[in-house]
Amino acid sequence: MNVRRLIPTTxxxxxxxxxxxAVSACSTSGAADGKDGDGRLKVVASFYPMQxxxxxxxxxxxxxxxxxxxxxxxxxxxxxxxxxAELGEAGYILYLKGIxxxxxxxxxxxxxxxxxxxxxxxxxxxxxxxxGHSHEGDEAxxxxxxxxxxxxxxxxxxxxxxxxxxxxxxxxxxxSLEKADPDHAADYxxxxxxxxxxxxxxxxxFEQGLKNxxxxxFITTHSAFGYLAERYGLDQExxxxxxxxxxxxxxxxxxxxxxxxxxxxxxxFFETLASDRTAKTLAQDTGLKTAVLxxxxxxxxxxxxxxYIGVMQSNLAALQKALGAK
Length: 326
Hints:
By secondary structure, the protein is of the alpha/beta class.
């Protein structure tokens, strides 16, 4: 059973209503209004889950660019001078603090008028390799990269993998875009409602699709699915913490071999933006199959779906097959 541990938040309810925008002094450059040549709001998104929200909610009124190009692992992104300059010219920046340290620093130093941290639009939680549970060897797995990736107070930043939390973030983004560009507030409101409706449908599909399964346990190289696991009553078992490239310890491999047999686990999941080496190592040692469970940190040609909704539907199908959905 996963144990939910909510992080106390100091964000006032009124700030949420205002879109939780950090407003700084406007730049005196020619791009001070944050608009492109066609009068669209220039939006910079930190990586794909933020880009998707901006595009879906902003529609034709925004020009969205992303700091993390397709196929790039977002955690280790280092910004180029051109990208830093782009932040200064943006009319609106959407990011998720705790995922990309270099991006967080650059945004803090940027003079962009509207900066929205998606992590402030919902409540973050602590998740270990298995939701809120701890396991022997987890401490060693949480190296410097892990602590950077998990954000403030060890919080799990992977909120976009829970459609319910992602919908909460979408509502906050919509409200903040209304404040940033009030001339198009009605359209932002309409687009937000449409996106939330799609996310509600996705949540229903996961609830129904994972209600009756042979096992509730799944093994993955990247412990990114704590929110998803908790939302749908599953148990995530990460091979070696939050770093998909790290090697599992012999003790962890042995523990997972025992667990796989006990919990009738059939599949070890790996992801699209990282090596499948650790998954194949465990699978070979345990006689299990391998499959993709995409943490949606970026869309690539290997992604099973064209956008967030499509990839999440593929993730649901993969989980249903692996867990023995009835």
